[in-house]
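Lecture 7 notes: from sequence to structure.

We start with a single chain of 290 residues. Read the sequence below before looking at the structure.
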Amino acid sequence: MIEIKLLFFILGSFFMLEQPNLFAEKVKVYLDPVKKEVRIEQYGLLSSEIESDIAKTEEYRKIKNNQVNWVKETDSFTNKRVEWHLSDKEPKLVIHFNYSHPADLEAMGIYAKDDEVSVFEYENMKILAGKPTEEENFVTFNNKELIAFELTFPVENFVELKDGKKLIRNDLRGKPLFGRKSDDFRGKLFQVAENKGQFPTAIKNGNTFLLDEESNKVTFDDDNKGIMDFLDNNQIRVQVGSPNSKTAPFHEGDQIYSYELDNLQLKLTPITKGNQPQKNKEFYYFVVIN
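Now the structure, written as tokens:
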């Protein structure tokens, strides 16, 4: 069974995995808050497997045969279905579903509150429908209007043209295109730091975390455990088992942060907090001490 996974607001966007072998060059998301319908269209699908023909890949076969294992994040959605649309010009994968409560969309990184719907403002994002306002890292729409936006993923460095079609370069086929971003974290002990002067410096006896070498389990100062998932756009989702003073700044519930890791310095910017968009300019710093 192929796992269709929810990562931020895009369902089944294979390029958002750490080591994708099938990904979309362009994604269009349509949200109708009145009908409570979502449609996600993925264009320019490319395979990094040895087999470059999408119709011959395992992912195509499993979805075509309805061998889809919807992960638990999608449990609240109804009428879920996946459709392939293949042509010589542009393969397309379309995902449809309905939702009952606006809060269900939080699993996708879409946050509905009062009369507004907020979406994280991604790089290379183009608004197709709706009249959003921009505030900090989000674009906010009226929740009574059709919302649509497009994301593009730069593939210039990974593809070549063959018979007028884009294909993953031969020397990259069968290999992970993007090595795992989590490898930059694994096996390193991070300690919370203060940003004074030009460089952050570790706080004496400050809280620490360590990401497991093999799994996504993370260990904090008092041996408390949590999960750190690596998502698209240099973002991580952190879940803490039993939050306390030793796990700060990580708290209860899923939290999403964007990160910048430069040599031995890590900067975290909260994207969500308590399942709501975090719009203020709050940063956390860590340094590698081991």
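The longest strand covers residues 78-85. Keep this in mind for problem set 3.
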